[in-house]
Specification:
46% helix; single chain; 487 residues; alpha+beta; two-stranded antiparallel ribbon
């Protein structure tokens, strides 16, 4: 069989991700803070981008880039004042009163004479919160230790996790410092006497025993429970503890109450984790019987293309160097325009999706979570005539302020469960019913999953026991055996 070369003409369609489309998709899935960071970075890299002053918001510059790369502007645009071009003439040559300059532009912020009794104390000027390492190192330096013991102590403190537990073994620390393991154990015993009680323990059992010793608890049953019955303590099998130790259940409950007052994570109070305030991307306000949607533009730079570079392009001469300059400015103009259009498209898309969500979930806004309707991405995508993947990107890391609180846009999407009447109910509404039932139960006789199923059936919600267990675990709610309280 002979081989031969042929040319065939074939017509096909292919989706190509242009740079503009890639940029628009990237911006769409960013959170608000990430979006601001991207804009600020683009403003640093692209000299043609500038933030519009607040006084020009009402008379904003509208600029687009034509195919030739020139800037088309509205006729009534008012140019803003710009600083004069620096020529370099007379820079530093004229007489200058440096003494008065230093008087007028001294150190920034308030300054005090430390001899002045009205000056604030140094303690009031501290802004950094002490960490667990700082707190322990301060105590370590106040302890009478040799140079070798100090090095071992620094290794121990440096190997504590955020909860205050020793993450390395004494053998590893001994090998690292080239000392005997007994020397490490001796320094560790001293550090375990530090504040907070229970610090530098190797496990929960040791942490609780350290606290028993430092808090001066003299109940021997407490030591016995911690050393021998941690599993029974976890599952609240108090009858087994009482039977094994031949004591009454009341004595066991009294010892358990003492253990419950201890801190299983002594280092957590020094964690540097801070609560981050959520800034919503969308505001929803009620006006009469309708809801109005407002995008949150506070803190978001409002970009425009600087008119200053248009003047530069008009004044440069036609030579090879100026052609390169014009080419650079033209590329920057195009990049800036793509960014501005992508941001505008992002804001329009978020508005459309938020508007559709409010329209679908109006009963939720009016009457609460029990009236949350089942909703999937396909429903919103069909309503706003976009792809599901686009909706997924829009609702990621975006938040909505509503009269009922701040919710992530994903919150309004949930699967459906059929009621006895045939009506569909959102799974989040079922979770809320489970949460309310557990919140109203008798702590000494909590509801089992079977009993919760019966309670939901009384409200017309037919659901399996394993589904109740799954929803309960998703809400981090313990089973009935571990929710039970004896005191």
């Amino acid at each position: 069989m002979a081989f031969e070369l042929k040319q065939n003409l074939k017509l096909s369609q292919q989706l190509i991700m242009t740079p503009q489309l890639q940029q628009a998709i990237k911006l769409l899935q960013l959170s608000r803070m990430e979006m601001i960071d991207v804009i600020n970075q683009e403003m640093e890299e692209n000299p043609l981008l500038e933030d519009m002053p607040p006084e020009d918001y009402d008379e904003a510059e509208l600029s687009t880039v034509s195919e030739e790369g020139t800037i088309a502007e509205v006729e009534d645009f008012k140019g803003i004042e710009r600083t004069e071009e620096i020529t370099g003439e007379g820079d530093g040559k004229e007489d200058f009163d440096w003494s008065s300059y230093l008087e007028d532009y001294g150190s920034v912020g308030a300054s005090y004479d430390r001899r002045d009794g009205e000056a604030p104390s140094w303690d009031n000027l501290l802004t950094k919160k002490a960490t667990l390492t700082d707190h322990l190192m301060w105590q370590l330096k106040l302890t009478r230790l040799s140079e070798l013991e100090m090095r071992i102590g620094e290794q121990i403190v440096g190997n504590l996790d955020t909860n205050g537990y020793l993450a390395a073994t004494t053998e590893e620390i001994a090998r690292l410092e080239d000392v005997e393991e007994t020397e490490v154990e001796a320094v560790l015993a001293k550090i375990q006497e530090y504040d907070p009680p229970g610090i530098a323990a190797r496990n929960l059992q040791e942490c609780l025993l350290i606290q028993v010793r430092l808090l001066g608890i003299e109940n021997p049953l407490v030591d016995v429970i911690i050393q021998n019955h941690m599993k029974d303590l976890e599952i609240k099998n108090y009858n087994h503890i009482a039977k094994k130790n031949r004591v009454s259940i009341d004595e066991v409950l009294q010892a358990v109450m003492m253990i419950s007052d201890m801190d299983p994570r002594p280092g957590s109070i020094y964690n540097e984790e801070r609560i981050q305030a959520i800034i919503p991307d969308v505001y929803v306000f009620k006006a009469g019987d309708e809801y109005k949607i407002v995008l949150n533009d506070d803190g978001m730079p409002r970009l425009r293309i600087s008119n200053f570079y248009k003047e530069i392009m008009g004044n440069v001469k036609n030579d090879s160097n100026s052609d390169n300059g014009k080419k650079y400015i033209r590329e920057r103009v195009q990049s800036a325009t793509w960014l501005i259009k992508s941001i505008q498209q992002r804001q329009r898309t978020i508005y459309k999706v938020a508007e559709s969500i409010v329209r679908y979930q109006k009963d939720f806004f009016d009457r609460g979570i029990n009236h949350l309707k089942p909703l999937v991405l396909r429903d919103i995508a069909y309503d706003v005539e976009m792809h599901e993947s686009t909706i997924s990107r829009v609702v990621t890391n975006k938040y909505m302020y509503t009269p009922r609180g701040i919710f992530e846009l994903k919150y309004f999407f949930s699967s459906s469960i059929q009621k006895k009447s045939g009506e569909a109910i959102a799974s989040k509404s079922v979770k809320e019913e489970i949460r309310k039932a557990i919140a109203s139960e008798n702590p000494k006789n909590p509801y089992s999953d079977h009993e919760i199923v019966s309670l939901l059936e009384g409200k017309g919600i037919k659901i399996a026991r394993r589904t109740v267990a799954k929803y309960r675990e998703m809400m981090n709610i313990l089973p009935s055996s571990r929710r039970k309280r004896y005191f």
